[in-house]
Amino acid sequence: MARLDVPDTYAHTITTQGCDDSATVRIELTRDEARAVAKVAREINYASDYSCMPKLYIEEGVAEKATGIEVDE
């Protein structure tokens, strides 16, 4: 039986990537949490104005089956 006070969570893959290294985590997030991370990622990626600056990516799912999250503006 599902608890009513716990929002549904979904698997996500979050990656930071720069020129010489990257880090990836897999985490359960609610839809609202994923949208917040995607909003931050969009701002970070906009501020990363040359190729070696770190970028942040969030994908719904794990590994190869991940798909991008769209952020409503």
Please characterize this protein's 3D structure:
The protein is an alpha+beta fold and 73 residues long. The protein has one domain. The chain is 23% helix and 33% strand. The protein has one helix and four strands. The protein has a four-stranded antiparallel sheet with strand order 2-1-3-4, covered by helices on one side. The longest helix has 17 residues, at 31-47. The radius of gyration is 14 Å and the shape is elongated. The mean pLDDT is 83.
Strand and helix map with partners:
Blueprint: E1 10-17, E2 22-29, H1 31-47, E3 55-60, E4 67-68
Antiparallel strand pairs: 1-2, 1-3, 3-4
Q: Which band does the percent of strand residues land in?
A: 25-35%
Give a count of the beta strands, DSSP E runs of length 2 or more.
4
> Uncertain regions: pLDDT < 50 for 5+ in a row?
none
Number of individual domains: 1
Distance between the termini: 35 Å
CA gyration radius, whole angstroms = 14 Å
Number of helices: 1
Query: Main sheet: which strands, in order across?
Result: 2-1-3-4
- General shape: elongated
Helix content: 10-25%
